[in-house]
Design goal:
It is built from six helices and 13 strands. The protein is an alpha+beta fold. InterPro entries: Endo/exonu/phosph_ase_sf, IP5, IPPc, SKICH.
């Protein structure tokens, strides 16, 4: 809810872990900060509309030394999704589109809903969806309806993947607001203090929904081996001590879905045979050190093995290593035979480091 030091969210050591491409690659070319309940007062929104918003600037400052550049961003009031990539992977990122769906106040207000960025990565269609769903224990059914509305409303241009679930791979995350049912708050806190989190899993509304709601068929999630991330007294690591005494819950989640669910891999899964799109979750954790919100941030690292990989970009750009004079600032490029030209084609000049 306020700007803060986000350096630890880059997940130290992530640069040595495999992420996209074939198994054994050693880099993290995609980084996705996603935010909910960002300050969206009218004066802040006007400033962000006229200039680069503060959150984009903050993450650009943190990530540029690691050779990341901002590929795309989408905002709907207080819900933001940013997509960063290593600059040398930019030629392999295509068909970038964004969308947003308001579900607050019957679809007229963007305090709740979802924002998405979809793109082709090495020839595979991938969609990232950041949602802020309705709050409170009794609103589980409303959360399901809102998620179904977001999936139905968001449509993209092109035949490759027009809807969210048409993509080869979908990552769904955000403040999904699912709560823990039935159990008394005292037992929930006892289970947390005693590190018996498995006692709470079967009463988690999202875990229940994954096996009962058809709209969630195929979505996978790693084990919740970190304490519930909501609700804390701001400035502390103590759960809600106000008069409302809200029950702790895993409201902040990260899930994924492969278009053919049978070939997916969860944490600890066995290695797939070559030629199959697979996802392995290497890390799923919360960051207890952040106390500026009543939520704790949640982060994950994934290794994705694509069925195939486009090794040659459709457009190759040639520039001199160094420009000392204005007349040296010349870009030459060559397009592949099958490249589909468009009036939207462009060449970007990025500042790196």
């Amino acid at each position: 809810k306020e700007l803060c030091d986000v350096t630890s969210l880059h997940l130290p050591g992530a640069a040595e872990r495999p992420a996209w491409g074939r198994a054994g690659s050693a880099e993290v070319p995609i980084f996705l900060p996603r935010l909910q309940e960002v300050n969206c007062k009218i004066n802040k929104r006007l400033k962000d509309a006229l200039f680069t918003d503060q959150w984009s600037e903050l993450f650009m400052d943190v990530l540029s030394p690691f050779h990341f550049v901002l590929v795309s961003t989408v905002r709907m009031q207080g819900v933001i999704l940013l997509v960063f990539a290593k600059y040398y992977h930019l030629p392999f990122l295509q068909d970038i589109q964004t969308d947003c769906t308001r579900t607050g106040l019957g679809g007229y207000w963007g305090n709740k809903g979802g924002v998405s960025v979809r793109l082709s990565i090495f020839g595979h269609m991938v969609c990232f969806l950041n949602c802020h769903l309705p709050a409170h224990l009794e609103k589980a059914e409303q959360r399901k309806e809102d998620f179904a509305t977001i999936l139905h409303m968001q449509q993209f241009e092109g035949r490759a993947a027009s809807g969210i679930l048409d993509h080869d791979l979908v990552f769904w995350f955000g403040d999904l607001n699912f709560r823990i049912e039935s159990l008394d708050i005292r037992f929930v806190k006892y289970a947390i203090d005693s590190n018996m989190l498995n006692q709470l899993w079967e009463k988690d509304q999202l875990n229940i929904a994954k096996s009962t709601w058809p709209v969630l068929t195929g979505f996978q999630e790693g084990p919740l081996n970190f304490p519930p991330t909501f609700k804390f007294d701001v400035g502390t690591n103590k759960y809600d001590s106000s008069a409302k005494k809200r029950k702790p819950a895993w409201t902040d989640r990260i899930l994924w879905k492969i278009k053919s669910p049978s070939v997916g891999l969860g944490a600890g899964g066995c290695q797939p045979s070559r030629g199959i799109l697979s996802v392995s979750q290497l890390c799923y954790c919360s960051h207890m050190e952040y106390t500026v919100s009543d939520h704790k941030p949640v982060a994950a690292i994934f290794a994705v093995q694509f069925a195939s990989k486009a090794d040659k970009p459709p457009v190759e750009i040639y520039v001199a290593d160094e420009w000392n004079r204005p007349e040296q600032a010349v870009v030459k490029y060559k397009v592949a035979a099958g490249f589909h030209r468009s009036s939207w084609d462009w060449i970007g000049l990025y500042r790196v480091g």
